Structure formats: structure tokens, C-alpha cells
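Hi P.,

Sorry for the delay on this. The queue was packed all week, but I finally got your sequence through. Input first:
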Amino acid sequence: MARLIKLVILLLCPVITLAQSVAITGKVLRADTKAPLSHASVFLGNSSFGTSTADDGTFTINGIRPGRYNFIVTTVGFEDNSQVILINTDPVNFTIELSPRNIQLKEVNISTLSKADRKLALERFKAEFIGEDDNAKDCKLINPEVLNFSFHQNKNVLEAFSDEFFIVENRALGYRIKFLMKKFNSDFLTGSVIYQGQRMFEQLPGKESQIKKWRKKRDEAYYGSAMHFYRSLYKDSLASAGFKIYRLTRTINPNRPSEGIIQQNLTKAKGTDDNAFLKWTNIKLSPKYSVQTLGKEQLAIKDVLRKTDQQGLFAVTFADYLYVIYTKKWETNYFRDLYREPYMLNYETTIVSLLNKDRIMFFDRNGTTVGDSPLYEGTWSRARLSTMLPVDYTPANNQP
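Then the structure:
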């Protein structure tokens, strides 16, 4: 069954709207003494724009693409500073004050992992967060020691967090990625993964021949991705980009227990009761939905896209589920619960669910979701760090 992932973007208000800019400069100080803070990380979240403060606390970030970003300042021992900004074209200057962090012990309702268990936890983390595709084979976690793991036995949930950046070198795409992990939960019962954090991309050095290969791989990762879809949506170019969208309706199978109950019974019966294990295995293989119906007519962009009163911010809303087909790539993975009509070709397909009560989601012109992120099943659900691109990425061949 397809793994379901909810990506949670940390969004702090209010939004700061800046005059248009290609550069951000400023200074980082201690809030208590007003002394400059050197070597603090200053970056635009999930982008390739970032730097560190000099000895006098100053910083400069040049060449910024217009768009909406999370502007983040962080350093060990101090509270992070994060604010949402809208970049246009005029220079911008910040003075940022960081407060010393109050160190508090996490609640002790979890088991401490042994050396062997930590190794297993690290392997699961790498599989769930970095990925298991061909790109992931070329990814290396540089400093695993900064990751902290704990396991909630009563919930069968693995938790990970870090107080400083952990670093992944993606030799498939040519990026060095620094990730500040605030939360990572992997549910062993349901197979779902939730994480929160911010990442910064840096270009890896390479010869021109290597850089050319990286550009090709980056384009492969971009085309058909969620980023590509949202950019095409607001540019009114879904058709030329290769996307088709439909409405999907579903009825939950009333005779199938929840995934958590199924997994609990499988775990309980494994190795102790063969009949019960076979019974629950068959239940697990039963359809999750009793009825699924795909709309016959394609949805138009106007059916799902809404304008907002904030420049560069767009809204998406739809009834039931949004069924997204990308017709320029064949699907190479099997998703058991992904509905297809008998006549349909095996194109890459994603089912999008809106999780908030208002049934609306927001994204910016970089193609990045803002606030409550949707749930993806199918192709986009397999997106991991191994295939992720900075939000300021532009494809090399300039196709739609």
C-alpha cells in the first residue's frame, strides 16, 4: 500500500511584505547583550539562498529570485528567528535579535535506544526521509551523530529531532542539503510519516561534465513533480505541461478496520497464532474503499484555482479528491489503493486530499505549499529528500 506523507511547513505570522529585492543584508545580535553573533546561519527556507554571519554579525544574501520565503536565522544555543517574507527587487536590511534558548528536557515517556536499536532507527530514518530510489543510493548522511532518536513503545512511533543542522550530500542531483529537523515521526502501525523543519541547499562543486549530468537529473526530478504542477496551475499551462486533473469520489469500506488496528493484530498474532495472522493478513489486503468513481470530464483550472488578496499567493480548493495525471512519464511503482479505470494508461498519477476543515490549501509562485499541506497518494507520496529541489529551482531546458 502507498505510504502517506504529510509535509508540515512551519509558517509564522505576520507576513512581512518587502519592497522588491535581489539582496538581503543585515546583522544578527544577542537579544540580551546586543553583542554580535558570528557564524549564525541565515537562509531562505527550502531554497539555495543562504549564508553565515561574519565576526561582527553581519550577513549578505545576493541574487534572490522574487517570491515568498521563510526567512530563518538560527545558531546553536539560541531560539530560532523565522518570518515569512515576500521578495521583489529593492535591497532589504534586517537587524535580527536572537534570545538564548532555555534548555528543557523532553518528556521521559519514551525508551532510550541501545546502540543496536539506534542503528536500526537510523536506517529507517534514512529510508523514510532520504528515500530508497536510485537517487537515494547516491545520498550520504554526513553527520548522523547530531540526530536524536526515541521510540514511543505504546504508540509504535519512532521520533527523531536535531538541535543543529544535519547534512546530506546528494550526489545524484549535485546538492549539499542542510536540514534543521524539528520533528520526525514514523508510525510503524500505519506507515505514515510526518516531519517538520527547514532545509537549505548548496551547490556541490563539480566539473562541467558532472554539472551537465546533475542538470539533467534535476530536470528529471522536476518534471511531473508537485512543484511543477503548482507552477503550471497558476501559469494556466497544465495542458502544455502534460497534466490532467479530475474529480475522484470515494466511499470507505465499512467492513475494513483502521490501518492501526490491522497492524496491531498482525503484530500480536505473528509467530504465535498462524490462523489469526492469516486472517488479519487477508483483511489487510482487502480494499480500503468499497466504491471509487472518477469524473468523466477533465476539471478546468478555474474549477480548482482561486486568487487571494496577497500578492504571489494562490489558493486551491476542490470537492472530494483531486486526481492528477502526468502524461509525460510512465509510473514505475505499484500503489495498491490508487484507483485506475480499466482503459487508463499507466501514467504517473497522484491523488490529493485536503486535510483542513476549510478544504483549502495555499501555494506560492515558486510552487511551494504554504501552511497546512495536502496529503498525497501515488507518485508524489514517494517524494523524499533524494528528489527534492530548492524552491528557487528553474529547469534548464525551459519547457512548460
